[in-house]
Amino acid sequence: MLTGKNIILGICGGIAAYKTPHLVRLFKKAGANVQVLATASALQFVSELSLATVSRRPVLRGLFELEGPGDEDKTMHITLGEWADALVIAPATANTIARLNAGLCDDMLSVCFITLRPDKPVLIAPAMDGHMYGSPSVRRNLSALAGQGCLILEPESGDLASGQCGLGRMPEPEAIVKALVAMLQPAGESALKGRQVVVTAGPTREKLDDVRFLSNYSSGKMGFAVAREAARRGALVRLIAGPVNLATPQGVERIDVESASGMLEAASRFFGECDLFIGAAAVADYRPENPVKGKIKKNDEEMELRLVRNPDILGEFSASRRPGQVSVGFALETAGGIGYAKEKLERKRLDLVAFNVSDGATTGFEVDTNALTLIDREGHVTELPVMPKGELAGRLLDAVEPLLPRR
Ligand code: CTP
To answer: Is 216 among the catalytic positions?
Structure first.
């Protein structure tokens, strides 16, 4: 499963570190070469000798180690990042998560994170007390790392070392290995390899005047995750993005737009040639009829705003597409709105619609997780439970791949 893969396992100082010798054994059993990097406090929880014995390599700790895997002619902190096929950080503590997000380089693990080749996957398995995991700073740091393309493996619920019961337990080593195998799955097996894919993402802004606009809370995270995953599977991806604060996924061609009209103009350039169109953008359905030049000045009167309909980008693609071009849309509804999602599948002539409900906490706009119900034209319904948007993007594309015509 992992034959010949070079895996760096970064271990941080949390009680779940006691499970890591077993994790190393599972990686080795799957055929991988494993180099353990331990933070200073990790070795308070797990013995260096155990890790070195099971990995068959010395554990690397400080910044100034001289010997390790990789090119002997280069310094260790550079060679490690080049040697690795994947970096797994398990357990990842709140402290290390903050340091990685801040870009600090004060131990071997943080340096390795920075020097890792950008196309190599990073899997982070946070484990900590439930209150810590839910704290705004941990959420913010994890969210930023997920935005950079790291896969965050959600902790499990259960009894915690703090004496509490809740979310925060590191997933079992078997689940970590499974997630890594999925991440390293060769793109050659994907039906998306070499296909042209267009993804729309984020909100649109519809100008009222030169300093104000109408928009919505979409962060673009779901669309960016889909674009990243499609590129990872070997597709040629064009990401048409509304105004969002996200890094461009590796290997993706990004076109920034502002309004629905701008999004249609950019997207329609690829209507003819794309194999798959995924509308993940939260496009404003209406725009001010007459945006004002300069700034609207207030007076004592009430103000009436006349809005006109925006073009339906996904609808226009579906209406003009050739046989074989696949069209996928999202439908954000309130609870119980699955009927509307089915109606959207028909009205927009989609092959698949991904229905989701925004609860403001674990699903919908801005958050890092989501849950989807996928409905296809044959009426098949697939429920995908709450999971990180990166993982969900993979599950969505798994469902889309069989819809593409065979080559
Ligand atoms: N979409 C689009 N262009 C628009 C509006 C929506 O491409 N002008 C796409 C979205 O990217 C998404 C799907 O269509 O894939 C959502 O459909 P829509 O009917 O607009 O959803 P809502 O706005 O949520 O629907 P409604 O307001 O009718 O509930």
So the answer is: yes
